[in-house]
# Entry
Amino acid sequence: MRKKILKGQSSVEIIIALAILLIFISGVLVLFFYSVDNIRQSAEIDQARNLAREGLEAVRSIAEEDWSNLNNGSYDVEYTSGHWQFTAPNSYLWLGKYHRQIDISSLYRDSSTCELKESGDLEDTDIKKIVSVVSWEFKGKTKTVSYPTYLTNWRNPLVECPSGGGGGGSGGQASALTFDGSSSSRDEYISGVNLLVTIDGFKVTNDSTDPVVIDKVQVFVDKTSMRIFSFSINGWIRWWNFFSPKPSGTILDINNYTLSPGETADIRMDFFTSEHGPVTFSINFIMEDGTEKETDKITI
Amino acid sequence: MREKIKKNFFGFTLIEFVVYISVASLILIALISFTLAILNMRQKQLAYQEVRENGAFILKEMLYQIENAQSIVKEDSVFDTNPGVLKLTTPSGEEIVFDTQEREIDLGGKSIFLRSLRMKEGDSEPVFISTKQVNVKNIVFKNLSPGEEVRNIQINLSLEFINPEKEKSYQAELSWQTSANLRL
# Structure
């Protein structure tokens, strides 16, 4: 008996084809909805970042007004009565959906290395850690953006680093230096068309039993036209720049001059200037270990 | 025994044809709606992206210039008003001005007006810092400094994708609020 041959598709085949098509369509739809969500979420993250940043800037403004306003704790910030002011955290709904919390905490120093730490016994009251956190709801889930920063009381620091960066013992190498400006002298003379001033005879002594190394110096003078072009120790030029003399306060790298225990060295400095008359100067010695010591002001 | 040959019907009956046409129409309608929905979503996505990128660029430029400014010229700036104006001086003495200008653009043969943000550096010509696809709905600068010197500026910015026909797929609007302090 010849077998019956059925051509075309059965309803089962059609249902399977439709099911595959539906799965494909729903997959594509989910992908598209997901990408639209992503764009919206990115836009909200942008808004949250800007609000978090505003929190940090507001705290900076409060600190500029008075550093002592920065007390540890959690706050939000709001502009009222002509000032940024701390308020209770998460008390306001920014742009209709974002909460903001600003955490202020202390930072500490390592007692031997002066390194900054999040915990310890030696609090550095001139520096605070500020974290601005913005949170909001997105599709039933809480999202957060967090910006941390350190603010420093650099305009008016109240504390000194305990050891000045280590090395050299208590107070560092700079504490070993003593100064004698009693035999300092000033000479003025004309070279070509330039008025030159030389300050000579200033003495610096290493009063400790260990050698100390002077890395850099800063020379401060009261005359604005004075430009230093050479700095010598014991008759040897340690730094010079005849072609580009430097103004008051410039850090001069004298390439690590070692002062032996008990040694006294003579300092000589040469300047270009356009002003005659007495000069008030001081020298800041910056040691190899980073510690510094400045002389008293001397007028000659 | 002679094999009985069964009668075979080729082609469709009317009912089969009607059922076929109905199913095919349903599938076609679903496919067309699906394609249209995807195109609309794609358009909305592009509109949001354009608005977002404009906002990010504008704020980045403004915050950078404020933070690095020497001072803010209070007299020539317009605070607490939409549209605002912000004038800064740089450490080199150059002046930088952020303001807005109405500009006319051609959109498919139709001319429309939109408000754009611009930045002027020194003596050079102002340059637009928002694109022709977005309208600056709101730009307000607030002086939030505690003292006489202007040091803290708040920026409120709202941008919308241009949509003169009010089509749903082109509706995209975003707002930002942030602040910056002078660092010098």
